[in-house]
Amino acid sequence: MSQSVPPPGNPFAGGAVPPGPGNPFAPAPPVRDNVGLGLAAAAGTAIAAAAIYGGIAGAIESEIGFAAIGVGFVIGLVAGKVGGRNPILAVVSAVFALAAVYLGQIFGIAIIGAEELGLSTTEMLFDHFSLLTDAWNAGKEAMTFLFFALAAFAAFSGAKKA
Q: Whole-angstrom Cα distance, residue 29 to residue 135?
């Protein structure tokens, strides 16, 4: 008893299986090219990331420089995922990352200062903002600017990789 050996090559080339109904290929993914929505998403993410970054810094009463890199990356990633691969998004994400890290540091200082002075954090932010910026200026050092640069770079890279 011998078994039949299938012919070499594609067994379906001769039409052994009829094509099914509809398109056998998956549709192409939609093109993400909405710069305005990407900018809005980056701005919203920057505000949220600044609040979280500042809240953590204020809660532990210390600045975490490496968290600034995460702030920048998440801003760029959201901008790239929502807005597409437009190069404007990468540049604007880097600017938003700088602003978010600065505002997060100011918010952290406001939390610490409010606790020490017996004021509310909002009162510190709105009534004594010059005091907060003076405290930020007194505490800045070379590492502060290094983490600013790393946050901007992470935002730029995150937007490009998304």
A: 49
User: Which residue from 5, 90, 85, 82 is spatially nearest to 44, judged by alpha carbons?
Assistant: 82
pLDDT tens-place string over residues 12-61: 555 555 556 666 666 666 666 789 999 999 999 999 999 999 999 999 98
pTM beyond cutoff 0.85:
no
Distance of alpha carbon 108 from the chain centroid? 20
What b-and-e string marks burial along 108-136, b requiring 16 or more CB atoms within 10 Å of the CB? Answer: bbbbbbbeeeeeebeebbeebeeebeebe
Structure tokens at 98: 């700088």
The pair phi, psi for residue 23, each rounded to 5°, is -85, 125
Unique residue bearing structure tokens 């710069």: 35
Centre a 10 Å sphere on the Cβ of residue 161 and count the other Cβ atoms it contains: 13
Tokens of 111: 């939390």
User: What does 78-135 look like in DSSP terms, one character per residue?
Assistant: HHHHHHBS-HHHHHHHHHHHHHHHHHHHHHHHHHHHHHHHT--HHHHHHHSHHHHHHH
